[in-house]
Amino acid sequence: MCSPGLLTSENAAPVPQLFFSPALFVTKLFAAARSQSQARRFPRAAGPRDGIYSIRCCACTDIIRTSKNHPTVSHPRVQAASAASGTFDVLSMNVAGLPEILNGNGESGDKTTNTAIIGQDMAKFAYDVIHVQEDFNYHATLYANDNHTFRTATSGGVPFGSGLNTLSNFDWLDFTRIKWATCSDASENDCLTPKGFTFMRLRIDEGVYIDFYNLHADAGTEAGDETARAANLQQVADYIDVWSTGNAVLVFGDTNARYTRADDGIRVFSTQNGLTDAWVQDAEGGVFPAIGADALLCPDGVPTNISCEVVDKVLFRGNNFITLSNTGFFYDTARFLSSDLATLSDHNPVRVDFTWTLATTLRQSDLQGGPHGTWFNDLPSLPASPKAHVLTLRGGARLDSVAISLTSGASFTHGGTGGTAVSLTLAAGEAVLSGTLCWGQFNGDMRNFYALFTTSAARTLTAGVMTSSCATMTAPTGFGVVGFFGQDGDEMDQLGFIYAKQ
């Protein structure tokens, strides 16, 4: 449970720092890692992401959004207006946390000391969102020296953990770990641990969400490695198409890929998902290095500029609501050095500074409910200057569905077919100004139980049954509800409102 001070699920017992002989590897490392992994896993119900598990984000804020076993908690409130723009930075760093007995990484100093310095520097430079890879057997040391408010729980050391974690100044709604469907041991021990990628939906401000992906792809350059790596990156790209439809997205981590290699598949994020590589944008003028050209290798030590290419990437896109702009790509190696100025990892830490700006004609509410069901987002399908015409709700014991028809003829329906349908046809010049949602537990999942919408003519439409956990979201002045985003199944699991200028 949460406690005052540094709020993280890592306030639980730390992962042991394991140092032992090869003869004890199986008995000690496997047992300790399994114990820590099981202590921090919270299984999801079977569904569209069956076989995937979510991890609790422990943060005593106004809203805590977690997996199904740790549901949404909220105090009844009225949503505040979001800022129109802001800034944040991200860091991707492979922290070289494999046990010393498996991989020494060739860096000076012992790994416990190096990891402690990494954690201290992460806190010192106050990065907004950090994705780490190979965060295995020195994880407790990393977190003991860092002070970020929101941090993912470890999935365990080698061989049970993925080594992927996030340290953030922003809270998130859902955190999911996904194992690679394909791995290769052709030249590295990539199948030793459940490597893969993670997904989380970060809340940057009221109604401002960006989907963040961390990954560690298959290493090596043998044919089997490149086939597995391309399959890994394709798996992330396909996941984005389903779970980040219509959303702003950031993908950053250790791809083990180079643009000069023909079979790595790194271009899939551009061709399939519309993402921009921050290094390609800044160092290469937006043009990918030629396939088959010599690798643009960085020198040992601290790079003097960003002209060399590393396998650690930062890729991004905005959406119709949020414009994301890269304002600077950096190798932050000089910030992560030992007392004798030696590097702490065999990877250069990669930082990108971003600005975000909201469209002047659109706004969004916060999301309410639980992270279950299938993701939907009406934003990409909205016509120019949308206006609501008919609002329809279905409900009984809970909120079954929401639907809205626009004056343009476009219409959107989400949820199931249960309950009783009620509709409200808006008059000319009338807009839906606010909505109240109430939620609660049903069959172990958090769902929306009740909705109340109010128009500019003080007319209302309701469905479902109120609970003790409710929130009212009000459109900014001059805006009205024109669509929805969230997750649904046979009922409304999670719901937010899209507002447009009227």
UniProtKB/TrEMBL annotation:
One Gene Ontology biological process: phosphatidylinositol dephosphorylation
Any GO MF annotation of the entry: phosphatase activity
Any one annotated GO CC term: cytoplasm
SMART domains reported for this sequence: Jacalin
Ranges for domain Jacalin-type lectin: 373-501
Alphabetically ordered keywords of this record: Lectin
Protein name: Jacalin-type lectin domain-containing protein
Source organism (scientific name): Mycena venus
